[in-house]
Amino acid sequence: MQEKTDRRILRTRHQLRDVLLDLAMQMPLESVTVKILTEHAGLNRGTFYLHYQDIHDFHEQLKNDILEEFHAIIKKLSHPIGSHQSIMDPPSGYVRPFEYVLEQKRFFQVFMGSTGDNVFSLQLTELLKKQFLHAYLLQHKQIKLSDVPDKQYYLFAYLASAYVGTMQFWIQQDFQLLPTEMAILFSQISRLGSAHVRF
Length: 199
Fold this sequence. Notes:
199 residues; mainly alpha; 69% helix; globular
């Protein structure tokens, strides 16, 4: 019985999410009210409030779900120490984040498109900064958190901002390049520097 209830809850949440993204592709996200959302989903408002406090809580939970899934993927981003992996043949861990964004394209078009949610982009940037720090500490086991050089944090901020900015441009260009091409491009820029990249 519990499993049936859980499946029904998941089905309702997925339905609301799909309808929200459909509507947000047609009108500004902030114009989608609980009334409009539930009418298009064929649900009553009471059902919505069983799951969420209000429309903002719904947005936050939706964003948090995506951030958690994205975080599970980017844990595999860093190269092992001494890796000579070819830039033109990036490891799957570098390609997977772009594949995930493409799989969730409607969400990212709504929340990171030209009229997207700046807060989500900042949350994604913070997530990447923390992951870069985590990877750095794994690779430098002799260094304590308190001993990480200040300038290293600037590097993390630069890389995270560049990554999110590049991804946002890709989304706004309607996914013009393939995920593998995006991984190669970001690897070229981050490892060679913009002055040495030629197309």
